[in-house]
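tokens incoming
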């Protein structure tokens, strides 16, 4: 930095300060390089946090088993629901909510933290109102919310989640007929 200041002031050129603006050109070049590096680093960090990694399996939050992503998307939830209906009933159905499933328009359950067994990753969710364009075949760890027993409203059949903030915002809007 001292060298750059010396060049701008004309003291570091070696020819008595008459460098014909060369110090200014060098200073601008250095500033340009710093900006380019900063933009590159910011771009790389954005890519890392937004895109994240693809997944091959998903932890089922009803049966607490690792399920292949293809099975999760096309068949697992229906059979799991049939086998574990008693467990599903431990998550109260919210008949009074105006907010419904965005896929089937059914009632949502307030999904509690009750699980058949402990399993890493099956107590988080992504709100589909806050983040509607997520790919179910990818993991978005920056968007995941930890279930606190009062902040997850879910339709298991459709794998549709809404966070408590969005539900309450929607309920208030409907109450005021907005």
């Amino acid at each position: 930095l001292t060298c750059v200041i010396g060049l701008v002031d004309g003291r570091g050129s070696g020819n008595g300060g008459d460098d014909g603006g060369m110090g200014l050109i060098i200073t601008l070049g250095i500033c340009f390089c710093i900006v380019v590096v900063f933009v590159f680093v910011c771009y790389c960090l954005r890519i890392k946090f937004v895109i994240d990694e693809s997944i091959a399996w998903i932890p089922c939050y009803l049966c607490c088993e690792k399920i292949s992503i293809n099975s999760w998307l096309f068949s697992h939830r229906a059979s799991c629901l049939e086998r574990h209906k008693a467990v599903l009933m431990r998550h109260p159905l919210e008949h009074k909510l105006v907010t419904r499933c965005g896929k089937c328009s059914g009632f949502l359950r307030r999904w509690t933290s009750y699980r058949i067994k402990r399993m890493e990753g099956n107590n988080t969710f992504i709100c589909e109102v806050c983040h509607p364009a997520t790919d179910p075949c990818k993991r978005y760890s920056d968007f995941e919310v930890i279930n606190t027993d009062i902040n997850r409203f879910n339709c298991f059949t459709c794998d549709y989640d809404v966070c408590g903030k969005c539900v309450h915002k929607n309920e208030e809007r409907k109450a005021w007929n907005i």
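note: The two ends are 58 Å apart (CA to CA).
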